[in-house]
Design goal:
This protein has about 70 residues and is mainly α. About 55% of the residues lie in helices and about 0% in strands. It is built from 4 helices and no strands.
Length: about 70
């Protein structure tokens, strides 16, 4: 697991971005977990900021949600 990085004035933290994108897509944490190949608990940890996915997983999540990753 990676420690969450503090957002800069030019970037958005991954956690709030992921929560917002899931709501926009009408997906549950379990839905995303199934598509990424992880557990709902892991997705919950990403959303609450307790953990962050690896860069490859972040790219896959952005593809599943059909959106760009936060910068």
């Amino acid at each position: 697991m990676h420690d969450p990085l503090p957002p800069t004035e030019y970037s958005e933290a991954f956690s709030p971005w992921l929560g917002r994108q899931l709501r926009r897509a009408g997906m549950s944490q379990a839905d995303l977990a199934d598509q990424v190949g992880t557990t709902r608990a892991t997705v919950s940890a990403w959303i609450t900021g307790r953990a962050e996915p690896h860069e490859e997983t972040r790219a896959r999540i952005a593809g599943i949600l059909a959106t760009a990753q936060p910068s």
